[in-house]
Amino acid sequence: MEKTSNILITGATGFIGGFIVDKALAEGMNVWVAVRQTSSRRYLQDQRINFLHLDFDDCRQMTDAMSGLRFDYVVHAAGVTKCIHAADFYRVNTQGTRNLVDTLLALKMPLKRFVFVSSLSVVGNVREDYPHKDILATDTPCPNTNYGRSKLESEHYLDDLTRRGLLPCVTLRPTGVYGPRERDYFIMAKSIKGHVDFAAGYKQQTLTFIYVLDVVQAIFLALDHGQTGGKYFLSDGNNYSSRDFSDLIRRELGNPWLIRIKAPIWLLRVVTFIGEYVGRATGKISALNNDKYHIMKQRNWRCDISPARNELGFAPEYDLDRGVTETIKWYKDNKWL
Q1: Is pLDDT of 337 > 90?
Q2: Could you tell me if residue 231 is left (phi over 0), alpha (psi between -120 and 50 degrees) or otherwise beta?
Q3: How far is the C-alpha of 102 from the C-alpha of 80, rounded, in Å?
Q4: Rounded Cα distance, 260 and 197, in Å
Q5: Residue 169 forms beta bridges with which residues?
Q6: Considering the chain, what is the average pLDDT of its residues?
Q7: Highest mean pLDDT among 33-42, 260-269, 317-326
Q8: Collapsing DSSP states into helix, strand and coil, what is residue 95?
Q9: How far apart are CA 308 and CA 74, in angstroms?
Q10: What H or E segment, with its residue span, contains residue 303?
Q11: Interatomic CA distance for residues 113 and 228, integer angstroms
Q12: Strands 259-263 and 6-10
C-alpha cells in the first residue's frame, strides 16, 4: 500500500471513522472524508484532511462531487446502528452502500481495495444453542435485528459485484467495538458510576469485544493484502461474561458501591417495547428498542478470528483489561465521567 495513495473514508465523523482517519494520516496517505453538511468535525481538525460532501441517497450528487477525483482505496464505515423506523436501516446501510458503490463503478475508480465495515450482527443467533462454540465464517448468517439484516443485504450486493470481478471488496465483521469517544458502552460506565449494574437474562451469556484501535489495525491490513471476497470476524480473541466488563469498569472508577440488577428476558422485552413506542412518538431514538432486545437476548457472541489472524496477520493488541483502562481514562480526561 503506497503512502501517497488516495483514500476515501466514509463514516469519518463517527466513532470508528475518526480513528481510521488518524491512521491514514499517520501513514502519509492523501485522505478524503465523506461528510454530511450537518456533520460534526470535532475530531477531524487536521489541516491535511480533504472534506467531501456526499449524499448517499443521491447518486447524481455523488457523481458530481467525486467527478475528477481518483481513489485507490475506500473504507466504507458509514452507517446507522439505531433508527426510529426499521426502513431507515435499509435506506442508510443497504441502499446507501449500493448507491456509493454504483457511483464509484460508474466513475471507473481504479480501486485496489474496497473495505466494507460490516458487523458480527449479520450472523444473528447462529449456534445459539451452543454457547461454548465459536461462530465460524462458514456458518450461514441468520440475523435477528434490522441492523444485522441491513448489513447482510449490503454484503450480498457487494459479494455479487466481487464475484463478477467488478469490485475488490474485503469485508470485516467486528464484534462489539468500544474505546474513547464511544457512546453506547459509555452508558454502561455512567450507570456503574451511578451505582447500578444491569444485566438481562439468567442463562450464561458469552460476549466478545474489540478495542477500536484493533479494528483500525485490521482495516489497514485488509487494505494492504486482504483477499478479495474475504470475510473476517474481528474480536480481541477472548471470550467474556458481562460481569467481566462491568467489573473492569468498576475497578477503573475506583470501585464504587454497586447494586447489581439481573432482570428476566421478559422484563427486558417489556422495557424495550415501551422504549420503541416512546421513540416513535417523540421522534427521538431510544437506546432501549427492539434491536437492543434481540442483541441483549442473544446468549452467544463468540466468533472465530483465525482467518483474520492467518490471512491478514491480525494480532489484537488490546485485551479487555487494557482496553477498558484506556477507555475509562479517556472518559475521565475529557470530562465525560
Answers
A1: yes
A2: beta
A3: 20
A4: 5
A5: 114
A6: 92
A7: 317-326
A8: helix
A9: 19
A10: none
A11: 8
A12: unpaired
Instruction: Give the pLDDT confidence score for residue 27 in this predicted structure.
Output: 95
pLDDT of 2 reads 67
Largest CA distance in the chain: 59
CA separation for the pair 220, 22 (Å, rounded): 12
Number of residues that this document lists for the chain: 337
3-state secondary structure of 262: strand
Contacts with 294 (C-beta within 8 Å, 6 or more apart), sequence order: 144, 145
For residue range 157-203, list pLDDT tens digits in order. Answer: 999 999 999 999 999 999 999 999 999 899 999 999 999 998 888 88
Q: Are 92 and 79 in contact (CB under 8 A)?
A: yes
**Continuous H helices in the chain:** 15-26, 59-66, 86-89, 96-106, 146-163, 184-193, 212-225, 242-252, 265-282, 290-297, 306-307, 320-333
DSSP3 helix / strand / coil % (the chain, rounded to 5): 45, 15, 40
The helix/strand count (H/E) of the chain reads as 12, 11
Alpha helix (H) ranges present in 36-179?
A: 59-66, 86-89, 96-106, 146-163
User: Where is pLDDT greater, at 132 or 48?
Assistant: 48
Cell triple for 141: 448468517
Backbone angles phi, psi at 177, to 5 degrees: -95, 130
As a dihedral over the C-alpha atoms of residue 210, residue 217, residue 121, residue 251, rounded to 10 degrees, the angle is 10
Predicted model pTM: 0.94
What is the C-alpha to C-alpha distance for residues 100 and 59, in angstroms, rounded to an integer? 7
What grid cell was written down for 277? Answer: 413506542
User: Which of 25, 53, 158 minimizes the C-alpha distance to 102?
Assistant: 158
d(Cα 251, Cα 248) in Å, to the nearest integer?
5
- In angstroms, rounded to a whole number, what is the distance separating the alpha carbons of residues 157 and 153? 6
CA-CA-CA-CA torsion sign (330, 331, 336, 337): negative
pLDDT digits (tens, 9 = 90+) for 15-62: 999 999 999 999 999 999 999 877 888 889 999 999 999 999 999 999
